[in-house]
Design brief:
By secondary structure, the protein is mainly β. Among the domains are: 113 residues, no CATH class; 215 residues, Pectate Lyase C-like. Helix content is 1%, strand content 48%. The two termini are 44 Å apart. The chain has 1 helix and 45 strands.
């Protein structure tokens, strides 16, 4: 237990540190927020022990004797109060770490923005640059094209900076409301001399984002903190259009546009871009786009998108690109986000990692959390978390992709909370899903077919299929109505074929599977099923001819289930 009650402000980061002592090991350590603090080390019993609440973070590795370990935790789950943490070790050899009574006792290190000061709540290290600031040109709200740009007092305006930018130029953009300038960049930099547009608060280099944006949920865009672009009319226009290669944009706020940034160049960096309220906000329509990337080798890092009605972060034909430490939130009930993170349009060899899709409870649209769609191969989504929304592989052109070391958290096992799951749709095939944790869902895994209506480059890949030849390795499911849902609708012959589960752990489920559509050669190997109420429910009526579950179980373990084990 840790006492955070004296913290006066919003917690912005949290790390748990501990030292391995007496017993080394390996495997995954998961950290959860505990429910309840009415315990001490001397009176802890089975009746007053805290139960697990929200997932905070995890680490997976070997733990040699004497090693100092650090786990980054989800700061948004912490409040200024006494806090219990629960550690769960799985999939490895046991280990021991030093206790409170030793000199190497565990530490919870938090940073927070003080509520007792009017200074901007930037990253705690943002008050000083971490590296020397390169010589560059200055841009301010009141700058003029007739100035020389060499100081704040003789700064340029933003439109002029875009107009004159050339390879190697660095533009420092001071905090302020820049309104709605027309910003289109045609000329780019080079590999050794990129063009850089970097926002700052008071001094160039004083805003530095680490492992996520300097913007946090419930913050408001604030022109006193970072440069702000504001649409002149809601849900219209694009804040920045850039066609150039080797360009970097950092520390910018964007609000109210139809589209935040359209980036068509190669070797582009978008870092600590905050974009909010994009597209129509007062009724449900496919409007609002955050960071739209069509160039190869793009890095999207530490960015934050809030309430983009249609698409928040999209890689479309953006080969070898990377999205890292980004967050997409949706809490607008009138036009909630449709696609949070989307890989499509022939994007290959891209990575989305260390990122979060967070959908508020009760929104009318379930959303697509982390989605690979239509035509995309050999992409990777890793160490990502979806709250109340899904991970999704959709269309037959989605092949040879990997989802691993990631998490899905639903709202409940009620049918009204169907939105959080792993979805395999419309013929997605030959993909690997590895070490995925799924908790509190209606259906943990959904294989289905529907007419999406989208036709991408080169033709329609919306196959009449529930997916085939996919491998599910190391899947953990806890507390679900059904581990697997197959089909539903009227395309009765859309089958799921040759999908395989290995080394997985399923617990606290109502049904192992509920099937409506055909299955062929489904396998569960070396997997554990515990605390289940029902085995398989094969739908009747119009589905009766198609719903038989064609499955084999090899070397599986069955514990405390309310049905007879099949093997």
């Amino acid at each position: 237990m840790f006492d955070l009650s004296k913290i006066d402000g919003q917690i912005t980061s949290a790390n748990l540190e501990f030292t391995i002592s007496s017993d080394p090991g390996h495997g995954t350590i998961e950290v959860y927020l505990g429910k309840g603090t009415n315990w001490t080390e001397t009176n802890l019993t089975g009746s007053n022990k805290p139960s697990s609440d929200s997932f905070l973070g995890s680490i997976k590795k070997s733990y040699p004797l004497g090693s100092k370990e650090k786990i980054s935790l989800n700061a948004e789950s912490f409040n200024a109060e006494k806090t219990s943490l629960i550690l769960l070790h799985k999939n490895g050899n046991d280990l021991a770490f030093a206790s409170k009574s030793t000199s190497s006792s565990p530490k919870l290190t938090v940073t927070y923005s003080s509520s007792s000061t009017s200074s901007p709540s930037l990253d705690p290290e943002a008050s000083k640059p971490i590296a020397p600031v390169a010589k560059g040109y200055f841009v301010t709200v009141n700058g003029r094209a007739t100035n020389n740009g060499l100081s704040e007092s003789s700064a340029w305006n933003l439109e002029h900076a875009f107009k004159v930018a050339k390879a190697g130029d660095v533009f420092y953009i001071k905090a302020g409301n820049y309104g709605n300038p027309k910003l289109v960049l045609y000329k780019g930099g080079t590999a050794g001399n990129p063009i850089k547009f970097i926002g700052y608060n008071r001094t160039p280099g004083d805003i530095v984002s680490h492992n996520g944006s300097t913007f946090k949920y419930r913050d408001q865009v604030d022109s006193n903190k970072m440069p702000l672009l504001t649409a002149s009319r809601a849900a219209t226009g694009t804040a920045i259009i850039q066609y150039a290669d080797y360009v970097e944009f950092e520390n910018l706020q964007i609000t109210g546009y139809k589209t935040g940034i359209q980036s068509d160049g190669n070797h582009v960096v978008l870092r600590n871009i905050v974009a909010t309220n994009l597209g129509t906000q007062n009724y449900n329509t496919y409007s609002g786009f955050g960071l739209m990337v069509t160039g190869n080798n793009t890095l999207v890092e530490n960015c934050y998108i809030l309430n983009a009605g249609a698409e928040a972060i999209k890689l479309f034909g953006a080969n070898n690109s990377r999205v890292n430490n980004c967050s997409v939130y949706s809490d607008n009930s009138k036009n909630p986000t449709d696609y949070y993170f989307l890989i499509a349009g022939g994007t290959n060899n891209a990575i989305i990692e260390n990122s979060v899709a967070n959908r508020a409870a009760g929104l009318s649209h379930g959303g697509h959390g982390f989605t690979i769609k239509d035509l995309a191969e050999r992409n990777t989504i890793r160490n990502c978390t979806a709250y109340k929304t899904n991970f999704e592989l959709n269309f037959s052109g989605v092949r040879f992709n990997t989802i691993k070391d990631s998490f899905i958290y639903g709202a409940s096992t009620n049918g009204n909370d169907w939105h959080a799951n792993l979805s395999i749709f419309n013929g997605a095939n030959n993909n690997l899903i590895k070490n995925l944790y799924i908790q509190d869902t209606w259906a943990a895994i959904n294989w289905a077919e529907y007419n999406d209506g989208y036709v991408g480059p080169g033709g329609d890949r919306d196959q009449v299929s529930c997916g085939y030849d996919n491998t599910f390795d190391g899947i953990t499911v806890k507390n679900t109505n059904r581990i697997l849902n197959v089909g539903g609708g009227t395309n009765y012959t859309a089958a799921a074929k040759r999908n395989t589960f290995i080394n997985s752990d399923f617990s606290n489920f109502r049904s192992l599977a509920v099937t409506y559509y055909p299955t062929e050669n489904i396998k569960f190997t070396n997997s554990k099923f515990s605390n289940g109420q029902y085995f398989v429910t094969e739908a009747g009526g119009a589905y009766a001819r198609y719903s038989k579950f064609n499955v084999t179980y090899q070397n599986c373990t069955w514990v405390n289930n309310n049905f007879r084990a099949p093997n």
